[in-house]
């Protein structure tokens, strides 16, 4: 897993949460069963309920993965309800049929529902009660602009003549009738749900409204403008119209949390709706739907799927009534066909310094956060099929991709100790003649053998046919910080830096043909965006230790050839720093590495104190530039619903290397259909990056020429 901005810890839904912004939402859950037409039979708060075939390693250059993945048809168990995302797909052919009588057409029906009169063959489950009750609420909202009118009444402070509890769509804390209001985020008259609320996007301060009610207007079509210009919408009511289809452009409304399309004439749902991963409630009551697209399986945050009043497939209805909305989503996800993989990533040629055409001076460098097994969980990546998260499946994609590009130097992050020792070390040696060096994070030193194997760290592999290993070294940031006297005097070092056990691995390599020495560092910094100061301190320490490491190897070793070069200073020794820096291009980390300095009052330091770092600033003269700087970086290296951006970099020293080429981005058309990684084609939430470097003529023999790296 990427330890990065994408680490949104989605809370597991416990029981049922109210329908967000929906009128009558509190009735079902808070026991106000008599609120609708005085019926005592309306259900009150429902109780809580609780190896596939993979591609073989053939053709190691960016293999294409086919559409022949097997599925796991496993009957779902209600006892697994607390972890629905980890359940395997349902075999729809084995499900029993449960039919619910639907109202004729889209006309509203009597709000009175007596569950005791239902056919005895129907399972009297909370999910059935939920469907019937919510459908009834929807049918009572059939009048034009029902939600907008009630919200306006709330704003005027008037009392409507209704027995229905209504909430303001733009302010769910306001209610007209029924239960009390929320104050300070807590209910005053009922007990608050004990589930942890899911994270929500911060509201746009310039956008004063986010709900739109187009219900009950008899609309037959929706303008494309709705989907292209209103991406800020979180709630959309298009219920009780005459819509026969929904445009695929609805996928542009990526902030939607509530979509009510009930009471229309829909016969299908666009698969693109699976891109709306923020959806909590999808209400499709009283349409003509017989099935749902498997692509809706990516709606991992969906809590309510309203299908009552549709001629839905018997197996799908059975699953919905027996195990609820989340079970349907899990089944759709687990059984979704694997689409076509993207085209191979293009190799982009960069017009760098071409004065050196010697192939022995060309070095390819590959960096990849592979997402360790321990962090590849269904709770973290709920949009990914469970079979595609297993290490066995992902490993068979990772190894050929790592080896297939044929890089001379490979830097990997999130490599577990056990996976390195049992698989990667041997696989890469056998398939590419690579030798490796690996260290786990510092916590491994305090653990027993059984726990140590699950600790991740950083690994560097190099072609033994091209390089000799001179020395290897590990940098433990928390320990290194205590070596500075000025750091020991600051509380933030102990409270913020010392508690993070990130590391870096450094190797000193010698090119066998030319005897040139190359310093390679690989790191994985702390992930949390609230610790930008810690990341900056860690990279400051990394640069300091890199310079010290270089100073030890300015002179050739006694075993080296007499022709081995002598470097006058660390700035002349070819240096490459790679890794997952968990920092975007606008961060202090990127600024420090690429520009050579950051001021002592940089915003990433915040109000924290780190000795000379925050009194004098940081500076270095290694002349580092990102290999992708000529492209202004890739569109992203980390791709999840919560974060899409660049976190991974390769920083060579620009005075000793020129960049002749880089590995290009993922195909745009393919990406436009993906919620996030990992998926069946991409085994990590990160993508690999790669560049080809050319050693320049030593600076003492020729005047330094500008490289492809722009001066910032």
From TrEMBL:
Organism: Umbelopsis vinacea
Record keywords: Cytoplasm, Exonuclease, Hydrolase, Leucine-rich repeat, Magnesium, Metal-binding, Nuclease, Nucleus, Repeat, RNA-binding, Transcription, Transcription regulation
Annotated GO MF terms: metal ion binding; poly(A)-specific ribonuclease activity; RNA binding
InterPro entries according to UniProt: CCR4/nocturin_mRNA_transcr (IPR050410), Endo/exonu/phosph_ase_sf (IPR036691), Endo/exonuclease/phosphatase (IPR005135), Leu-rich_rpt (IPR001611), Leu-rich_rpt_4 (IPR025875), Leu-rich_rpt_typical-subtyp (IPR003591), LRR_dom_sf (IPR032675)
Chain ranges of the Endonuclease/exonuclease/phosphatase domain: 367-686
Enzyme Commission numbers on file: 3.1.13.4
Family as reported in the entry's similarity comment: Belongs to the CCR4/nocturin family.
Superkingdom of origin organism: Eukaryota
Cofactors that this protein relies on: Mg(2+)
Segments traversing the membrane: none
CDD domains: Deadenylase_CCR4
Protein's name according to its UniProt entry: CCR4-Not complex 3'-5'-exoribonuclease subunit Ccr4
CC annotations in GO: cytoplasm; nucleus
Places the protein is found: Cytoplasm; Nucleus
Entry-linked Gene3D superfamilies: Endonuclease/exonuclease/phosphatase, Ribonuclease Inhibitor
